[in-house]
TrEMBL record:
InterPro entries: Bac_surfAg_D15, D15-like. It comes from the Eukaryota. Keywords: Membrane, Mitochondrion, Mitochondrion outer membrane, Transmembrane, Transmembrane beta strand. The keyword Mitochondrion applies. Its main location: mitochondrion. Residues 118-435 form the Bacterial surface antigen (D15) domain. It is found in: Mitochondrion outer membrane. This is Sorting and assembly machinery component 50 homolog, like. Residues 1-33 are annotated as: Disordered. Belongs to the SAM50/omp85 family. GO terms for cellular component: mitochondrial outer membrane. Gene3D superfamilies: membrane protein fhac: a member of the omp85/tpsb transporter family. It comes from Oryzias sinensis.
Amino acid sequence: MGAVHAKSMDPLPMHGKDLGVNPDDLMEHPEPEPDAKQEILENKDVMKKAHIARQRLLRLGIFKEVEVLIDTSEGADALPNGLDVTFEVNEIKRLTGSYNTMVGNNEGSMVLGLKLPNMIGRAEKLTFQFSYGTKETSYGLSFFKPQPGYFERNLTLNMYKVTGQFPWSSLKETDRGVSAEFNFPVGPTSHMLKWEGVWRELGCLARSASFAVREESGHSLKSALSHTMSIDSRNSAIFPSSGALLRINQELAGFTGGDASFFKEDFELQLNRRLFWDSVLSASLWGGMLFPIEGKPSCIADRFYLGGPTSVRGFGMYSIGPQSEGDYLGGEAYWAGGLHLYTPLPFRPGRGGFGDLFRTHFFLNAGNLCNLNYGEGPRAHLQKLAECIRWSYGAGIVLRLGNIARLELNYCIPMGVQSGDRICDGVQFGAGIRFL
């Protein structure tokens, strides 16, 4: 248990419970004198700043508890109307372990972890994590280092090995890599600069794999620089009722070495608006393009994939676009859009409690994925992306899992089906962290 003392003539609460102050004590029914009114305003400001400081200390992830005690200054050096602000903290153990389950896009996994928080004394964190899932197994070591006094600006170093199975492509992939990430805010936007070096091993998941997939098998080295910019004003990541999200990502591979050479850009846009009777209208738009460099063909592991319960519902998982002998090969360009109407459950069962974890939704999804001839102009590209549009509509029930994932049970009607597409006409189940 540690304590930090601060003296301030500056101001204070809103949340007296957290700070040991009852907000009612700050209310004066008679009109206070000017000096008394000034003192009250200053005290409220101190309480507010102490609350913000407490939240920042908790965000470091190195304290179990942070309590704030505010009292009038005492002693020979006490200032007139001065306040003593004391932060009492209880640090977490130097070595912690964890066991939990995670939900990915139509995938579940068990995760074991070991963590050394506050490793050097400035909120650094060393983490080892092992994950075993239905389609992916991984383990990795990461070191997290925030800038002192500016937690939002931080550096993360990673070493990892990931083995994944992709049955829609009859493909299995093993990645062994290292990466460095630098996160920082600029005004209302968040940015991430990343370098990644990965040794990739591709192989066939089944003997029936197509020749196109067999051609992709083997070893390759990818070295890539990427930048992600995001701005998120939503009031919730899973069930937003207001706000917007914009995320833009660029990736350049081959500039720093390796076998893969391409430039890749994709974006995600989401808008939300509350309507009547607690209903919410949500619109989403995704898109991306991959440009091969130096005449090298793109790799099946770098292309975009589309379709399934987390994107264009009513179609099989990643089963839209180019394919060979039943194996889906991905595409170098895509777009997808969705329109949703979310409403509370009929008759509002469990209102104010368990029932608030559920929503009904009506949806309309559309999209397309293809390869482009980059010798042609933008008009030809847009024309090709506008051809053979797959779309679907339907309704279902959505369940929120904390603030990180959700489950969907939908009845889907796929439309615009093309030759080779796999469809899911009727009931479709989905689980994930990112939905169109």
